[in-house]
């Protein structure tokens, strides 16, 4: 159910540049000429994964990058930017004239506008979408003009590589999508060329543009969130002088695909006065939407300005079907999957999917028109009873010296009984637990609850925190892979020779003399004023 909330004010604009940090964009301006040499050198570009961009009748363009995923994380050096390095490769099949090459790294925020005359539905055809620039950097290579007909814009048959680098601030919003909008990044290649190289003055230039999606993954949460979610969430209490309880949640900063750890313990004071019914673990995903600062006066009467969507996911449910009220303990891990299923409100027999999305950080909450928070709720259902069933009567003296570890299936682990650490933990619970305050009209059945915020990251953030492979490691892996060749031979077959002829070769002709141009613009007001 979508509920209305209040929003904050800001302005929007179509300008684009590095938000927030405004780092010095130190481009590689040391006369970056394209590389042109033997065919083996372009294959030795470090960390090469080649992604085709576009193909014309005369040339083919591709980007050679380490990966299409860029991991934003802090390091020991204190750097606030993450470099995106690569090569733009041009394979010329027929001589061509290329006057201008442009690479643009751009981030766009897609803002959804929900009409007021209908219930908010992200899948409705009546929902309007408006892209808003969030971040932009660009690199251009412009040939140096003069009066010659065949001059520096002439590309002979061969292969050419242009190195480039973009410096991405570590605190830009990551690539994400939810019911209220999304953020997306891409590298767009734009090439201006003349189709016929011998009629330069007669045929106008042709402009071709093609984007390559790039995924940005945030590997660190807010500095303030780290201090609050890196430690355990702990709840101690004494309920009606019938029992003590302890609920602990650890690993509160977790990636999708990881697990949350829970520890629950119940110590009896009066074993005959209560009954445990169940233990449940919920995850609340709250997505808030606020675009009041982006709407014109006319649009304010047309679209919703503040909305909220809450999804509750049942992560764990333990039904307690025993009457023995001894010292009881549950310890379990609950996985966080990308997609969870829950019962449909309208049809109890069917289930619908709930997609888990990462928690947004403070910067994303300011730059974007939405925010995502997550909260864990652990509930112990307990019931006060006035009489003890005769069949469940036990010796209280035996309970004091007993301990049982109960998993989801309520199996008892006898090996954990009466350890020194558990005895110390029991003493700590009894000393620190305070009596829970309840209203005068006490209910016989209540829930003992712990609520705690958690920070959820993308599943890919786990890979981003791993140390990157070195160039030497890559070469070693390449060498090991070649050791498993089926037919190792130094003699080329006719088939091998045919493959070599088909492969685009670099030539020794001096490439066009291009100069790199770095383009900058002012950031949007709603970014620069923060």
UniProtKB/TrEMBL annotation:
GO terms for cellular component: cytosol; plasma membrane. Pfam families: Arrestin_C, Arrestin_N. It comes from the Eukaryota. One of its GO terms (biological process) is ubiquitin-dependent endocytosis. GO terms for molecular function: protein-macromolecule adaptor activity; ubiquitin protein ligase binding. Residues 239-392 form the Arrestin C-terminal-like domain. Residues 89-211 form the Arrestin-like N-terminal domain. InterPro entries: Arrestin-like_C (IPR014752), Arrestin-like_N (IPR011021), Arrestin_C-like (IPR011022), Arrestin_domain-protein (IPR050357). PANTHER family: ARRESTIN DOMAIN CONTAINING PROTEIN, FI21816P1. This is Uncharacterized protein. It comes from Pichia membranifaciens NRRL Y-2026.
């Amino acid at each position: 159910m979508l509920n209305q909330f209040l929003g904050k004010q800001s302005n929007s604009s179509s300008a684009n540049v590095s938000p927030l940090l405004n780092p010095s964009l130190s481009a590689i301006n040391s006369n970056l000429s394209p590389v042109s040499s033997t065919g083996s050198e372009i294959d030795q570009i470090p960390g090469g994964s080649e992604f085709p961009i576009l193909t014309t009748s005369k040339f083919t363009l591709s980007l050679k990058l380490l990966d299409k995923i860029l991991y934003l994380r802090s390091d020991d050096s204190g750097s606030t930017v993450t470099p995106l390095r690569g090569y733009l490769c041009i394979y010329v099949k027929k001589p061509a004239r290329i006057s201008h090459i442009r690479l643009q790294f751009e981030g766009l925020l897609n803002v959804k506008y929900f009409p007021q005359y209908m219930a908010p539905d992200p899948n409705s055809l009546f929902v309007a979408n408006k892209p808003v620039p969030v971040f932009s950097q660009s690199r251009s290579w412009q040939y140096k003009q003069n009066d010659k007909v065949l001059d520096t814009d002439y590309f002979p048959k061969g292969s050419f590589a242009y190195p480039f680098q973009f410096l991405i601030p570590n605190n830009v919003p990551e690539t994400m999508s939810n019911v209220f909008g999304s953020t997306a990044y891409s590298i767009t290649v734009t090439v201006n060329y003349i189709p016929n190289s011998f009629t330069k003055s007669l045929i106008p230039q042709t402009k071709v543009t093609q984007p390559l999606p790039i995924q940005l993954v945030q590997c660190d949460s807010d500095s303030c969130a780290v201090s609050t979610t890196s430690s355990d969430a702990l709840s101690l209490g004494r309920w009606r002088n019938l029992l003590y309880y302890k609920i602990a949640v650890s690993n509160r900063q977790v990636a999708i695909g990881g697990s949350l750890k829970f520890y629950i313990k119940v110590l009896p004071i009066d074993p005959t006065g209560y009954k445990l019914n169940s233990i449940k673990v919920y995850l609340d995903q709250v997505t808030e939407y606020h675009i009041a600062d982006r709407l014109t006066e006319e649009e304010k009467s047309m679209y919703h300005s503040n909305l909220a969507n809450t999804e509750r996911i049942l992560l764990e449910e333990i039904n307690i079907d025993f009457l023995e009220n001894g010292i009881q303990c549950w310890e379990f891990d609950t996985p966080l999957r990308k997609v969870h299923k829950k019962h449909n409100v309208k049809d109890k027999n069917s289930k619908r999917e709930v997609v888990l999305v990462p928690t947004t950080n403070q910067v994303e909450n300011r730059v974007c028109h939405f925010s995502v928070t997550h909260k864990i709720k652990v509930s112990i259902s307990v019931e006060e009873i006035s009489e003890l069933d005769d069949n469940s009567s036990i010796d209280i003296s035996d309970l004091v010296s007993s301990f049982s570890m109960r998993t989801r299936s309520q199996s008892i682990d006898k090996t954990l009984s009466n350890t020194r650490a558990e005895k110390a933990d029991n003493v700590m619970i009894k000393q620190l637990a305070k009596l829970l305050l309840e209203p005068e009209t006490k209910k016989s059945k209540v829930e003992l609850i712990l609520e705690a915020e958690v920070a959820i990251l993308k599943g890919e953030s786990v890979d981003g925190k791993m140390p990157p492979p070195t160039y030497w490691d890559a070469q070693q892996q390449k060498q090991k892979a070649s050791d498993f060749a089926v037919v190792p031979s130094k003699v080329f077959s006719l088939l091998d020779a045919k493959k070599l002829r088909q492969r685009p070769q670099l030539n020794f002709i001096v490439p066009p003399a291009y100069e790199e141009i770095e383009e900058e613009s002012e950031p949007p007001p709603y970014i620069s004023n923060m």
